């Protein structure tokens, strides 16, 4: 039988992969994709908790699913704005490599 | 049957998730991300969250990934040339990620609820678009409006960002 822990572990593993991508990769676009992976890992654990809490009417707890809906919406808005920033940055600097973008570095 | 499907889909999700991080070419990363999200959508469906699964495919595999691929093609990014990696920073990053996973693992391991199987749903058919819609427009009406404004602001922001030259 599948337990809640299985889903939580898979979600944690996906989150760790996304986290490793954010801190190890030096390409802005791939950092951005890893960010999406982390958001989706959080969504998976929310949906697993939602299914785990079946209430008295025999339905899963939909509060968590509404929360996932909000997270997906915010993530979509974030992708649009972030990619626009990356395009603007690329126009100004001709690079998406984070080590070449260091004018704020002291 | 269900555990087998669970492991197949989570292996697909994790495997292609690793491919996103490891690939040198951004296009290959983006396509791996699509497959990873398809696996995730299948897991949502297995958790009886049909609406979220459909939304996941429509929004991520549909809209977001097209945007990513469009930007990658527009910027004409080649596979990165190999640069010298900073060994200390790299191993430090791997160590931090491993520590994070160990922490998550130990929390899940100690959680008593994590050992219990999912309770069965008594209903054969659940109308979950209707149920989510009720909660969304009733209990969560204000956050829903705020999200609407957020999307509007994001749209305006994107137009402003792509119109003006950054100096």
Quick overview of this protein structure:
The complex is a heterodimer of chains A (106) and B (167). The N and C termini of chain A lie far apart (55 Å).
Which structural traits does this protein have?
heterodimer, A: 106 residues, mainly alpha, 74% helix, B: 167 residues, 6 helices, 75% helix, 0% strand, globular
In terms of DSSP E residues, the strand content of chain B is under 5%
How many beta-strand elements of chain A?
Answer: 0
Largest sheet of chain A: none
The largest interface is: A-B, 74 and 85 residues
Describe the structure.
The complex is a heterodimer of chains A (106) and B (167). Chain A has 106 residues and is mostly helical. Helix content of chain A is 74%, strand content 0%. Chain A has three helices and no strands. Chain A has helices at 4-24, 28-52, 62-93. In chain A, helix 1 (4-24) runs antiparallel to helix 2 (28-52) and helix 2 (28-52) runs antiparallel to helix 3 (62-93). With 167 residues, chain B is an all-alpha fold. Helix content of chain B is 75%, strand content 0%. The mean pLDDT of chain B is 89. At the A-B interface, helix 1, helix 2 and helix 3 of A face helix 1, helix 2, helix 3, helix 4 and helix 5 of B.
Set down the secondary structure blueprint.
The complex is a heterodimer of chains A (106) and B (167).
Chain A: H1 4-24, H2 28-52, H3 62-93
Chain B: H1 2-22, H2 26-46, H3 50-75, H4 87-110, H5 128-138, H6 141-163
């Amino acid at each position: 039988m599948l337990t809640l822990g299985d889903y939580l572990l898979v979600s944690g593993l996906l989150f760790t992969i996304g986290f490793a991508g954010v801190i190890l990769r030096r390409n802005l676009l791939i950092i951005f994709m890893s960010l999406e992976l982390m958001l989706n890992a959080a969504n998976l654990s929310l949906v697993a908790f939602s299914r785990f809490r079946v209430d008295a009417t025999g339905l899963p707890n939909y509060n968590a699913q509404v929360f996932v809906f909000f997270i997906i919406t915010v993530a979509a808005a974030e992708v649009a704005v972030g990619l626009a920033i990356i395009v603007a940055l690329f126009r100004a600097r001709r690079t998406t490599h984070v080590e070449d973008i260091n004018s704020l570095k002291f | 049957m269900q555990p087998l499907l669970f492991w197949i889909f989570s292996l697909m999700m994790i495997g292609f998730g690793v491919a996103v991080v490891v690939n040198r070419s951004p296009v290959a990363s983006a396509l791996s991300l699509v497959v990873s999200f398809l696996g995730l959508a299948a897991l949502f469906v297995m958790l009886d969250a049909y609406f979220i699964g459909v939304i996941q495919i429509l929004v991520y595999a549909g809209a977001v990934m097209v945007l990513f691929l469009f930007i990658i093609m527009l910027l004409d990014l080649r596979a990165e040339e190999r640069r010298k990696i900073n060994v200390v920073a790299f191993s430090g990053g791997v160590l931090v990620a491993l520590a994070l996973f160990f922490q998550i693992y130990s929390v899940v391991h100690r959680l008593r609820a994590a050992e219990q199987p999912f309770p069965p749903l008594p209903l054969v058919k659940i109308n979950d678009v209707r149920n989510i819609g009720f909660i969304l427009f009733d209990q969560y009406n204000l956050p829903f409006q705020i999200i609407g404004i957020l999307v509007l602001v994001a749209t305006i922001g994107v137009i402003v960002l792509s119109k003006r030259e950054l100096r």
